[in-house]
Design goal:
799 residues, alpha+beta, Alpha-Beta Plaits, Rossmann fold, Jelly Rolls, 4 domains, eight-stranded mixed sheet, five-stranded mixed sheet, 16 helices, 37 strands
């Protein structure tokens, strides 16, 4: 659709922003009785706020309430009045004033944990769970009974105190993040008469409070203390919740500090659970969540759909076969080999070869080598080392190299790499130094093929020369060979993470702002000192007042889905322990969680879960009921069940999709950067997608959307969602052949108030006709634009 004044025309007499969704007739809640004279509480949705006042023409028993910002009214109507209001052209929807339930209760319901608690009678009473987080309210009514240990971080480098000291009933929670997480796992529901209890309300709880920070030192220090206490018999922990992360989309290193910590905990009988991350896009999973020995939770809503903010894994083929892996067994065995290789004694070196030279600007290359400005290369043939006395048979056995690079002056920083088959980009990188900035010497090691040629690369960082020496020790190949993939590029399962109701202390920051900052295509958890935009803060306060629960609050994010999954894990452990007298192996728990995940809706087995793909939800939506029953029956799954296809994944098995994923790119343009009050602003979006699309743009509150011609623009809507305001266009065609990207546009009228207003980002998803299936995830394709308005309030100001 071309952007012009004809297609987007200001409606005659229109004042205020209106909903641009013309239709015939209004939807009526089927639970309303249109044949009775009894009064029924209803919320009526109109096209604009001005239309709400039409309710005043009726003979209403109690009058009506007009919403302050939304085009809605609340009143009590008879059946005849409901029919009358539904027939108005301005009415979009008439809905019963039904009671809504907070999402922690819903999480227990939709995952089957409520059935496990009330029908199978497992509540986590034999299980101990650890939480590593910002802190916790030690005397919260829902947590004080189960909180067995509450450790507070103290920097051991700044005093004589140990790193972890007992905090008792203190509130170390700061924002309340850790309190919320803890309640989702083991909250008793005491302050809500059981309504908001956690997944495993009788589980013992140990919390490591990092006192507001999430630094690697604190996190690994908590794991270290936990493992030490486990080994000493002071704790017996089965599951550990980790609602934090970093390094989204990066490759997994088995030797990273936290990776080693979680692997060690796993070996001690603990199941680590990590949140996927809130980076929303493809290939953005939390780096710590993709280890083959951990569970990774994607965030869903209560309808079991993955949220737009939940981080996604890698699509098939996006990084090459070895860098896109969904097979847990392969990755687990590779990581186990990587750790086993650390323990193997390679014996004596078969031979040692040395190289020396000078690197840096103007450095001379080794004799006979081509001129290089700064980097230097040394050719190495493992089976025929130049100038080294070694037998041909011994040289043919070379399969591993350890090399070191030392240099002077010491202040220089030099990188050290090994390439196979060519220099630099002409070859394949086999290994690089890992010492970090300032390390001297730098070292590397790698498995090698003695029949191939290798090149050592010396790469100085600073613009000075460095004299260096390389020492390369050649060994026989180790008996244990570790290779990629080391990780899973997908979540494990999905669990509820959107508007989850759980524990908060009355004084917590997140109690005042009981949700997260939605927008910009990402979900940002509220933190102490953060001030959300006015419109969002208003939404959050209204939600808090509606909940009216001083000890609870709603938060969203994969940080919330993680503890739901951790609580489910606790129920599996509890059922197995109570039935069979011992705890299962962590891998049996992990495999069973994935094997029992629902690829179809439990309420509708014929629904093929079309929005789900392996890289968005892994094995599917978590099913506590089925997993606990298998634990009770001693029929847990194991690592070998991944190899024969027993454990199915969403999007790759019989009930999955065909691998299609919607993709989009595009542009965003408007008329200017500065506007006066009442000035018309034209915005144009260019959309290049691989399927017919639904497109939306985030627009600021206070700007009037100029009404379109209904016949030509029946696919346009304006609405508010999660504290953001959008204009949305549906059924935007896919460009074909060499045609240009599709174009959609709209006009706004600038408000009277002076200030800066943010537009965008624009997003798109696959257009799905009613009754059909497709990819329902919105994907961002533009950034944001900030426009300034010089409004009436400034124009009228005294000079």
């Amino acid at each position: 659709m071309q952007l012009n004044r004809r297609t987007l025309l200001k409606g005659a007499g229109a004042t205020g922003a209106g909903l641009l969704a013309p239709g015939v007739g209004a939807a009526v809640d089927p639970t309303l009785d249109t044949g009775t004279d009894d009064l029924q509480e209803v919320v009526v949705v109109f096209r604009s706020r001005d239309d709400v006042d039409r309710l005043g023409r009726l003979d209403l028993a109690d009058g009506y309430y007009k919403y302050k910002a939304l085009p809605m009214g609340f009143t009590r109507l008879t059946g005849e009045q409901i029919r009358q209001v539904a027939g108005w052209r301005e009415t979009l929807n008439v809905e019963r004033n039904r009671e809504l339930t907070p999402h922690n209760e819903d999480a227990r319901e939709v995952t089957g944990a409520k059935f496990v608690q009330e029908e199978l009678f497992y509540t986590g009473e034999t299980v101990h769970v650890a939480v590593i987080d910002s802190g916790v309210d030690g005397d919260h009514p829902d947590l004080e009974r189960n909180l067995k240990n509450h450790y507070r971080f103290v920097n051991p480098l700044q005093g004589s105190d140990p790193m972890w000291t007992e905090a008792g009933p203190a509130n170390t929670g700061g924002s309340g993040h850790g309190t919320h997480v803890s309640g989702s796992i083991a909250g008793t529901g005491s302050a809500s008469e059981g309504q908001y209890k956690g997944m495993a309300p009788d589980a013992d709880l140990t919390v490591y409070s990092t006192t507001g920070g999430y630094f690697l030192f604190q996190i690994t220090g908590a794991w270290d203390d936990l493992v030490a206490k486990q080994q000493e018999g002071k704790l017996d922990v089965q599951a550990v919740n980790n609602s934090y992360g970093a390094g989204t989309g990066s490759n997994y290193s088995p030797y990273g500090a936290l990776q080693v910590a979680t692997w060690t905990g796993f070996q001690q009988g603990m199941t680590p659970v990590f949140s996927a991350g809130n980076s929303y896009d493809i290939d953005t999973l939390n780096n710590y969540s993709i280890g083959p020995h951990v569970l990774c939770s994607a965030a869903t809503d209560d309808e079991m759909y993955v949220t737009d903010f939940s981080s996604k894994g890698r699509k098939p083929g996006s990084r090459g076969d070895k860098l896109v892996n969904y097979d847990r067994k392969e990755a687990f065995e590779n990581v186990a080999d990587a750790y086993a290789a650390l323990e193997e004694d390679l014996g004596d070196a078969i031979y040692t070869q040395s190289y020396s030279g000078t690197a840096g600007p103007g450095a001379q290359p080794p004799l006979g080598a081509p001129q290089v400005t700064d980097k230097q290369y040394h050719e190495w043939n493992p089976d025929a080392p130049e100038g080294v006395d070694v037998s041909a048979s011994d040289a043919a056995d070379v399969g591993f190299v350890k090399a070191s690079l030392s240099w002077s002056p010491q202040g220089q920083d030099v990188d050290f790499r090994l390439y196979e088959g060519g220099k630099g980009s002409e070859g394949t990188l086999k290994a690089s130094s890992t010492g970090g900035t300032g390390a001297n010497p730098e070292t590397l090691q790698a498995e090698i093929d003695p029949t191939k040629t290798y090149y050592f690369e010396v790469d100085p960082w600073a613009a000075i020369q460095a004299d260096y020496t390389i020492t390369a020790d050649a060994y026989r190949a180790p008996s244990v060979s570790a290779s990629r993939p080391f990780s899973l590029h997908r979540p494990s399962v999905g669990t509820p993470g959107k508007f989850v109701m759980s524990t908060l202390a009355p004084e917590d920051y997140n109690q005042a702002y009981p949700t997260i900052w939605y927008g910009q295509g990402v979900a940002i958890e509220a933190s102490e000192g953060q001030v959300p935009p006015p419109a969002l803060a208003k939404l959050q306060r209204e939600q808090s007042e509606q909940a009216d629960e001083p000890y609870y609050g709603q938060l969203s994010g994969t940080s919330m889905s993680g503890p739901v999954l951790t609580g489910l894990v606790a129920l599996i452990y509890d059922a197995y322990r109570q039935t069979h007298g011992e705890f299962p192996d962590p891998m049996e728990v992990i495999a069973t969680v994935e094997a029992t995940a629902a690829v179809t809706r439990p309420t509708d087995p014929d629904d093929a879960r079309w929005p789900h793909r392996t890289w968005t939800i892994g094995a599917g939506f978590a099913d506590a009921k089925t997993a606990v029953q298998l634990a009770e029956d001693d029929e847990l799954f194991g690592l070998d069940d991944y190899a024969d296809g027993t454990i199915d994944l969403a999007g790759t098995g019989s009930t999955g999709g065909d691998g299609f994923v919607f993709s989009v790119s595009g542009s965003r343009e408007d008329d200017n950067d500065v506007y006066t009050a009442g000035q018309t602003v034209g915005v144009e979006l260019g959309v290049d997608a691989n399927a017919t699309a639904t497109v939306r743009d985030r627009i600021p509150f206070g700007w009037e959307v100029l009404a379109p011609d209904e016949e030509e623009n029946a696919n346009v809507d304006v609405y508010t969602q999660n504290g953001n305001r959008y204009i949305e266009f549906t059924e935007i065609p896919t460009p074909s052949g060499d045609s240009e990207a599709a174009t959609v546009g709209y006009f706004l009228e600038a408000p009277e108030s002076t200030g800066q207003y943010q537009f965008g980002p624009a997003q798109a998803k696959e257009y799905v006709p009613d009754g059909e299936s497709g990819d329902a995830t919105f994907r961002q394709f533009t950034g944001t634009d900030t426009n300034r308005v010089v409004g009436v309030d400034q124009n009228d100001a005294p000079l």
